[in-house]
Amino acid sequence: MDVINPVLNHQWNRLQDTKSETGHLIYEGLSPRKTLLIVFAYINQQVGTRSHSSFLSGIDCKKLFLNPGQNTWYQTGIPGVASSYAELGAFLAAVKQAHRDHEILCLGHSMGGFGALGFGLHIGADRILASVPEYVLNRPGSVSARHMSEVSIQCGDLSDVLARNTDSRITILVGSKNSFDVSMAEEIAALTPAEIIRLNSDHGTFPYLRDHKKLGSLLEAFANGDPLQPIVTGL
């Protein structure tokens, strides 16, 4: 794949070099379809695995899987790729530029939802699917507050990038049984146009959809740009 300047060439070479060495970054680029799906890992996910792989494997598009290897909400970047939130943002902007003729999608659940929102908005992704995301970290009652006590926050509030959004189409999945997650989703929708899809679940929206045999079809619809609400009607 061609890139347009030496900086992007260096960034692209880093992606190619690290994809199979550490497992923090896995790139699947063989699909001829001009769509790149960037997938952000959730907490406690083993390095080297592909998030939601069994449900994404049959979807025809290029895929980039990111895993920080610890529960840092991407504040310390991705080992071997970027050492900070800002560096990871710059890296993903370079990845987007290297795929400048592609549709760019961002996907994440929980911790990954924060990454999908923050970095998706930073690079101007076409579509973002964020499941039970936080947009302000370390609020009382949040998942991040339970896991990030020793982490220095570099970007813990996405309010400004949400309010400035004019390009990215955002869908938020939320479980109606978790009042904190519902409040997060409603506050996001107050800052930027976003579709909220409510499920009769708690924080585990993706496991809930998996158990109801709807997760695969939902992710496929997201990749294809099809409506998501009809897939989960009644759940």
Query: Could you say which structural class the secondary elements and strand pairing correspond to?
Result: alpha/beta
Shape: globular
Largest sheet: 7 strands, mixed
Order of the strands making up the biggest sheet: 1-3-2-4-5-6-7
Q: Report how far the terminal alpha carbons are from each other.
A: 42 Å
The counted number of beta strands is: 7
Portion in helices: 25-40%
Continuous helix count: 10
The H-and-E topology, N to C, reads as: HEEHEHEHEHHEHEHHH
Mean pLDDT: 91
Please indicate the percent range of residues in DSSP E strands (runs of 2 or more): 15-25%
Alpha-carbon Rg, integer: 17 Å
Which spans of ≥5 residues are poorly predicted at pLDDT below 50?
1-8
Based on the model shown, name its key terms.
235 residues; alpha/beta; 7 strands; globular; disordered N terminus
Structure notes:
The structure is a single chain. The chain is of the alpha/beta class. The chain contains ten helices and seven strands. The protein has a seven-stranded mixed β-sheet with strand order 1-3-2-4-5-6-7, covered by helices on one side. Strand 2 (35-40), helix 2 and strand 3 form a beta-alpha-beta unit. Helix 1 packs across helix 3 (85-98). The longest helix is centred in the middle third of the chain and has 14 residues, at 85-98. The radius of gyration is 17 Å and the shape is globular.
